[in-house]
Amino acid sequence: MVRRASSPGFETWWRRVESVGCCAHPIRLVGAGSIGHRQVVWTRCNNRRATVCPSCSDLYARDTWQLVHAGAAGGHHNVPNEVAARPQVFATLTAPGYGAVYNVSGARCHPSSKRSDGRCVHGKPLHCNATHSIADPIVGQPLCGQCYDYMGHVLFTWHLPELWRRFTIALRRAVAAQLRARGMDRGSVRVSFVKVVELQARAIPHIHTLIRLDPPTVPMAEGDQNHFGPAATRGGGESRSGAGGSGWVSPITAGELAALIQGAARQIRVEVLDVGGDVPELRFGTQIDAQPLSGEAMAEPGETAPTGRLSPRRVAAYLAKYVTKSLQDFGITARRLSTEAIATLHVTEHVRAILTTIAELAERVEPMAGIGRWLHTLGYRGHITTKSRYYSTTMGALRAARATWTRRQNAKHPEYQRDTRPNGPKPPVTDVPADLDADDVLWMFDHAGHTSAGERTLVYSAALQRIHTRRIGLVEARRQARDQHGDPPGGHDG
Length: 494
Known about the structure:
Layout: H1 2-5, H2 10-19, E1 27-32, E2 38-43, H3 54-73, E3 88-93, H4 150-181, E4 190-199, E5 205-214, H5 254-267, E6 270-271, E7 281-282, E8 288-292, H6 312-322, H7 349-364, E9 385-387, H8 395-412, E10 442-448, H9 453-485
Antiparallel strand pairs: 1-2, 1-10, 3-5, 3-8, 4-5, 4-9, 6-7
């Protein structure tokens, strides 16, 4: 670190580091333009995992907050203010229980019962009188690994995208049936959503989703005609028209939508094939939570908006918090694994048993042979974040706006794009003009990451310091706003 910081080209190199926001794993591209001069640019890695790149992960979380909040509250990113008055429900769809695990509940984990000996068929105690904290490594581990249904655990994880697809179809059908029962056209309401998948402490995914009811034709965000958001969700047969929608009043309230979500989630079933040739039924767990969002615009005429309930800001912060999590907490990197590496991994026996079950399914169940490629995700093959097309803006639109702003800034300060090498002669390099058409240059990958551990440590530390400083600034700004105008509506965004 000291050697790099005292090198002759440090200042120029550091300006380039700042141009990509202190990305810990930047991508270096080289290309030749129409006049033949060599050109070099750095770009962010855009990794959402906080353990890989704190800077890009923090930016991804902030973009997710913008995406979710725009769809929940409206008023920015070309999303109309009217969406705040539409029925919205924040729902959590969990996995069934596949065995007793140590948990965090604020009370005794599994209190002993005097009516039984408190042991399973394998002789393991099924009680725990301790109160665990969230940082306790035993949280999420099964009380008895032999009793735990690892086959059901892995099958649920693998088929969760299909369960979600069927849930969206069932929910749209339930909404249509509700409308028909009231003598209305089934196409008079559209279901929009955004969802985030989180891995629980027991290493099984569950879904957080914000679901909104829209008019059949809604205004489409500018430039969104050819984008489907973080991932397309074509499983519900949603209409794709895009016009009108102002002054629309939903025939279904947020409370009724919450009940429809509960019913749709409980009726979903998927039949699959396991190693023994049986055909078990997969479904969501019984702990299905659906809470309507609160807000002044969502109160009924003559009523006061509910207090102490969820708000768009809180929900956006809640979802953004989970998109940066990764399997690094379980001792698994983002790189693909082989079955031979399972025995050598520094993971808990619970995670090792999951990996072994995945390898067994890949070898013995022909329809699931592809699951072996997903060892590094513990069998989950879906996207972390998805949304329906017209829910709000897209990640692509947010990044495009940021790229346009960055090019304008670089045009004012061209020294940010100069190439600097600490050792050896410097090749002839020209700065990339702000108005350069990407089609005019054939960009080629040069390398990714920094050239030494000292460089990476300097950049990593700077990124963490920037994140910390920004958060302190936000807290201070909110404190001043509360002192001057009282607590702002919607609470804090975390």
